[in-house]
Please model this.
Amino acid sequence: MNQNLSNQVSETANGRIKAFELSLDLNGKRGVKGPLSAGVDLGTAYIVTAVVDADRNPVAGALTRSRSSVREGLVFDYIGAVNILRRQVKDLLESGYSIKSAGVTYPPGTTGANARACVNILEAAELEVVGMMDEPSAASRALEITDGAVVDVGGGTTGISILENGEVIYSADEATGGVHVDLVLSGNYKIDTHEAEKLKRDTTRQMEIIHLIRPVFEKMGSIVRRHLKGFPSVRTIYLVGGTSCFPGIAQVMQDQTGLEVVQPYNPLLVTPLGIALACFDEQLSSKSMRPSGKTD
Ligand SMILES: Nc1ncnc2c1ncn2[C@@H]1O[C@H](COP(=O)(O)OP(=O)(O)OP(=O)(O)O)[C@@H](O)[C@H]1O
Ligand SMILES: [Mg+2]
Model:
């Protein structure tokens, strides 16, 4: 195994992501220290809510398929997203997690009405919006990093964001993501995309299918390389987003870019956990995130 691909995310950060994953089952309250902070990530494929306690420990969460509620920063199915989030809040309340407010992420570059729509979804689910943050910045909070490239390979798109001293200095979004992997598998095995998605996530078959989907990962890698060309100071790529869960993607990304590639524990959960942590941190330091829906 290539040395550059193992565990450069701090143990604390990876441990926290793991704890968040475990907390998603909502089975039995874990030694929770109140007050709680929550964050919501409204994605194309999943809506994810994370809850952390006063020790910054993840204590609860919810993850639901969103059926294209939000795509490339645009809210497609507003009512669907509201219904999912209402259900998540209800489940959390019934499990004893009193969530009244939350922060929300938005794709980098989202402005005006689209950012406002994210706020409206939370408000319609009876959550007071205490802050907004772009997705790569939220991811950086969970990963405990301030510099490097955050590459978010989600359902429909791959986002490339460059961080310098904790600020996003460049970001781009390209239309290649998990659905393209599904399409390749669907065509090859003559199955529908739903079955293809299941196949892709079957850990017993990932070795068998990597050669089929490598070209999709290579395309993503070449897109990332193109965007990073003007930023020679970037040494490390941090993979987040659901498609980054696939074991072979990090090696392909490294081969394509020649950079160190970090694949954290469960990349799908990084951004949602990050927004909950950011809410917690900002409350403590009284620095305000932007609750107004304006991102520029
Ligand atoms: N274990 C896994 N292995 C491979 N792919 C996975 C795995 N888990 C989830 N995915 C894929 O990740 C994608 C969803 O990722 P994510 O939740 O980051 O997207 P999103 O934020 O909802 O969408 P987008 O960022 O495109 O708006 C889906 O295509 C899903 O099939
Ligand atoms: Mg996403």
Summary: The pocket of magnesium ion (ligand 2) is lined by residues 43, 152, 154, 241 (CB under 6 Å). DSSP finds nine helices and twelve strands in the chain. The two ends are 43 Å apart (CA to CA).
